[in-house]
Amino acid sequence: MATAMDEMSELHSLLMTRSLTDDELLRATDVAPDYRILPEVSVLKIGGQSLIDRGRSAVYPVVEQLAAAAKRHKIMIGTGAGTRARHLYALAADLGLPTGVLTDLGTAVAGQNAEMLGYLMAKQGITVVGVSAFSGLPLFLAERNAVIFPGMPPYDMWQHVPDEGTVPPYRTDAGCYLVAEVYGCKSMIFVKDEDGLYTANPKGNGEATFIPRITVDELVEMNLPDMIIERPVLDLLRHARHVTSVQIINGLKPGLIERALDGEHVGTIISAN
Amino acid sequence: MTAQTAETIHVPSSLMRQTLLDRDLVLPATGRPVIKLLPWLKVVKIGGHSIMDRGRDAILPVVEELVEAFADHKLLITTGAGIRGRHVYSVGLDLGLPTGVLAALAATDAEKNGHILAALLAEHGVVYLPHSSVAHHLPVFLSAAPGVVANAYPPYHLYEFPPAVGRIPPHRSDTGPLLLADAYGAARLVYVSDVDGISTADPKDDPSAELIPRIGARELAARGLKTLPIDRIVLQILGSAKHVKEVQIVNGLTRGNISKALAGDHVGTIVHAD
After folding, report:
1. Which of B23, B30, B91 to mutate to probe the A interface, most A CBs <10 Å?
2. What is the mean pLDDT of residues B222-249?
3. B94 and A12 in contact by Cβ < 8 A?
4. What is the reported pLDDT for B1?
5. d(CA A253, CA B2)
6. Do B162 and A18 touch (CB under 8 A)?
7. Which chain B residues are within 8 Å of A100, Cβ to Cβ?
8. Coil, strand or helix: which one is B43?
9. Do residues A214 and A270 touch, judged by C-beta distance below 8 A?
10. pLDDT digits (tens, 9 = 90+) for B111-141
11. In terms of Cα–Cα distance, which of B52, B44, B54 is closest to B74?
């Protein structure tokens, strides 16, 4: 029976000698321990089109909920992009610009939304932290319990190209989710303007049925034509080591953010298994 | 049901009011052919372990070849991480750190190899460009100089995907140049390694291994070879790339291969989209 130390030294020698495409090496890395960097923190994603683009009637109550939540919870608040990103994507795609350029454009919009949220939460001492300053996150969280960050992943010109069209496949849902996963966070909550996931887009579709809980496999199997969460997040979730489920909740309904942070099931839970 | 609140304030566009996930709505608005931003660009990846770790005996001839190539080509030269990247993976894994942290750490090692190569090419006007400049200032640098050096690791860093198997970051130094070459609509992508190309087995372990001169990405993936001289995710990305339809893997230890590949001659292995 190999000890953990033997396994790690075996892994070290594989890493120094084998190809990184070697399946045996990749499987051997599974023996390494999993350390959660910020296990007490939850990531919340505030929708762009679904919430911020609605202006004060939606955003002020959400800000109040976030400020209240930060009294009892440690939270990282990521922002979506929304309608201005859609305008940029439509304009740029019509000019034949590549996905990498569209990614950069969308990143700026998520940044604007983070900036606005930052001004609204300034009174609470809650600030925006950009990706390049993430090394300071622990201090902000220790001092104020909350930070705001722009939701787009930093892929820029290195964004994956979609099979069809040019819209960046990994946008703010994926960006916020990956932040939660890499820091080994407690939970990932997507705050949008619907109660969760439906069998069709409930906007303009009376037949849509609410799905309270579903697994990634079941959801992929359903092959829904439209969805409230970016599809690539499902694949990320499938391979996650820390954040193996996410919840989608309605930010327009008072109180749900704190209840979700308390671990209550108040929207749709999508889980890896 | 939606609570009482103001409607979303939309900017009118063909993608307005939708989730960007309904292909019937998104495709008509985004299906136009993608233009090539820098159609004359050629992208070269210099292997970290295969070239840089070998030191001057391997690096100096490669530098000479790159300088010769400057007469005919505008080059984006990218560098891999090599053995220090392996070491930092090993230490990071031992500490239990997640894949995203490993990706950020190894990218630093690739960057240092880039600084070394750029220093050797400095007298030709070549500088090392960080990711942000590669994404935004590449055209002006390439009008001023015949080439630039950049980090072959893509800037996925903490946002690296959790891999399907194990903990090693899937987007490594072969993936960055491919994504970038495709985004810029580059004319060519050449991986410079220390093997003649892709073989039926790893030639370092099996002397009977035979070189595969040309193969489709999907066919290559289906062969399930134990190791490959390029990152496996390259095979998957080639399938959806808009411009890059093939990549070439050549042996940089054989003088003349880089020039031949840049000129479009078939040396090494060509992997094409199928």
Report:
1. B30
2. 95
3. yes
4. 38
5. 8
6. no
7. 135, 179-180, 183-184
8. strand
9. yes
10. 999 999 999 999 999 999 999 999 999 999 9
11. B44
